[in-house]
Amino acid sequence: MRKWNLTGLLLTALIVLLASCELAIPEALTIKGHPGLYLDLGSPFKSGENSLVDLLRGDKIKEMMSNGDPSLKIAELDDDPLVQTYAALFPIEDRDITGPGDIPGEFIPGDLKKKIEGEFNPDLSSLTDFGMKFEKVEGFIYTTGLGDSATLTFNGVSYGPNIPDESVPAFPDVGDPPLASLGSYSIGPIDLTDSFNSGEPVTLNYEFEFVIAEVLSNPHISMNMIIKLPLKFKISDPPSVNMPAGKNKNDYVKLDMKNLMPAPGAEAGDLFGRRPGDEDNILKNLESLKFILNRFTNNILPDDPDDTLLVIDGGSGSAAWGFDFDPDSAKEVLIDPNDLPNPFNPKFEILLKKNAGADPIFSITPKEEKKLDFNIAVEAMADLDYKIKFGE
Fold this sequence. Notes:
The protein is mainly beta.
């Protein structure tokens, strides 16, 4: 980021002007005025990888759920018009049975049974890294042709015997028309919420046991699991910033956007390019300073003016300022230049207001393109009264 050196800029421009007009350079010059400057700091999201918007795309959800398994299918579920919901199909077994050689699995010693075991490893920890927790994630098991004696052990919990035969619904893929419903299922719903909110890749273990003779009496067997994933989140992490005047920290929780507008490196100085001991900059002559949010787009977070807040925390001993997410409100705040410490590397944080003291829950609505972006700019007015002597 360039350092704001107004004196140097004005002096250079003046010398060029005098030279072009073939005028003699005077012994001294006094500069007075109220020039305005506008600095576009850009989008706070551009510097990060795996941004929240990218992670909420259907193809990205599929990538995280499959964890590299190409057999997984994922579809949109037309389950709630206000909540974007995905259904992920994990196939386990699907085959025709014409004889003992067609029956999959391992023999259980000393018994006329076989077993099929394995695991799924979906990984949505990148989403929970933002401080968001799924409100509810559920699993549904579909089996056909395993017989009345079949049992299932799933994540240490046993189900069966007499598991109902239910076929998995015809499954589209992302981008196709939504799946109307999950239909009837053999086992479920199984609560997977805690597993998906662990902040780590999920391990879901399963083991089916079935009697060989019962399977031989059926022409076809199938085993599938569907995970229902509504993009409905709860946030509970407390703010880590100072609060703007009139706002109580206990009323809000933070959306952890990671490096939201990270501070520049030591060589670049602070947000305005100042370095320790640097006095030759426009800030010492500022009459007014204004933070502005523009090019604002959002269909992810609540836009009620009292529900979502972007806080700019000036740091220790400084003030804090806030912007709401109301698309119709003016996105600017006037700052007293005397409130700016040196260096000024503010912390930016997005906060959501609690609901009557409870942690807020927000939903991603079914829209084709998820949007959350804005630019941050600074508008300044200086009060100049410089006297420049030449030849000294």
